[in-house]
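User: Sequence recovery, please. Input:
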């Protein structure tokens, strides 16, 4: 069974069976924009571990992961006080 990622890229016009690091990065950005942070982090990490990922792309992915983790970890302590 093929992954959702494969079907997503076929739908978006990428008919090749190999998914590149740039494709994964693009998918992650779309997930991040749609506030699906878990899926975005997964795609960013997959892009980092992809063999064709450049150092620049890896740096962008790592920065995006840190940003998402910072957003998810934010707590407004003033709202916790009754």
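Assistant: Recovered sequence (82 residues):
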């Amino acid at each position: 069974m093929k992954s959702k990622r494969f079907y997503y890229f076929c739908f978006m016009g990428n008919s090749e069976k190999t998914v590149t690091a740039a494709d994964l990065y693009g998918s992650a950005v779309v997930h991040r924009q749609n506030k699906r942070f878990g899926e975005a982090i997964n795609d960013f990490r997959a892009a980092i571990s992809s063999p064709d990922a450049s150092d620049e792309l890896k740096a962008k992915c790592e920065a995006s992961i840190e940003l998402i983790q910072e957003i998810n970890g934010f707590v407004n302590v003033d709202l916790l006080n009754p």
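The chain has a mean pLDDT of 84.
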